[in-house]
């Protein structure tokens, strides 16, 4: 499902226009992004938790040249599914 399909699904499920559903989806995505940038966690009970995890620096291998390279430390976004979502998938 891409963003346009998600907007259509939200509009149909919530009885909103596609314009309003797009505004709502954009607001949710922006709010989650802003919270993660600030270092906060976003927990949606039953759905899951978005958080930021730190990856330490490590060494790797360039598959094209087979030479060792250094991979820098960085922060990554992480999602852990909630119990209801996990049960619905299985």
Q: Your description of this structure?
A:
There is one protein chain. By secondary structure, this protein is of the alpha+beta class. It folds into 2 domains: 1-40; 41-90, IHF-like DNA-binding proteins (HU Protein, Chain A, Irregular), CATH 4.10.520.10. The protein has helices at 3-14, 18-37, 83-89, and strands spanning 42-44, 48-55, 58-61, 68-71, 74-81. 2% of the residues are buried. The model has no long low-confidence stretch (mean pLDDT 96).
Topology overview:
Layout: H1 3-14, H2 18-37, E1 42-44, E2 48-55, E3 58-61, E4 68-71, E5 74-81, H3 83-89
Antiparallel strand pairs: 1-2, 2-5, 3-4
Helix pairs in contact: 1-2
Task: Describe the structure using short key phrases.
2 domains, 3 helices, three-stranded antiparallel sheet, 90 residues, two-stranded antiparallel sheet, HU Protein, Chain A
Rounded Rg: 18 Å
Order of helices and strands: HHEEEEEH
Strand content: 25-35%
The CATH C-level class name of the largest domain? Few Secondary Structures
What is the helix fraction of residues, given as a range? Answer: 40-55%
| Count of alpha and pi helical runs | 3
Largest sheet: 3 strands, antiparallel
CATH architecture level-2 label of the largest domain? Irregular
Q: For the terminal residues, how far apart are their CA atoms?
A: 19 Å
Look at the structure and give the mean pLDDT.
96
Tally of structural domains: 2
Instruction: Give the full name of the CATH homologous superfamily of the largest domain.
Output: IHF-like DNA-binding proteins
Uncertain segments are none
What is the molecular shape?
A: elongated
Structural class: alpha+beta
Quaternary structure state of the chains depicted = single chain
């Amino acid at each position: 499902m891409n963003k346009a399909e998600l907007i259509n699904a939200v509009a149909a499920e919530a009885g909103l226009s596609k314009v309003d559903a797009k505004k709502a989806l954009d607001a949710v995505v922006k709010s989650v992004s802003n919270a993660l940038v600030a270092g906060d966690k976003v927990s949606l009970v039953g759905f899951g938790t978005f958080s930021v995890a730190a990856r330490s620096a490590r060494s790797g291998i360039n598959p094209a040249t087979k030479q060792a390279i250094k991979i820098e430390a960085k922060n990554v976004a992480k999602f852990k599914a909630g119990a209801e979502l996990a049960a619905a998938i299985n």
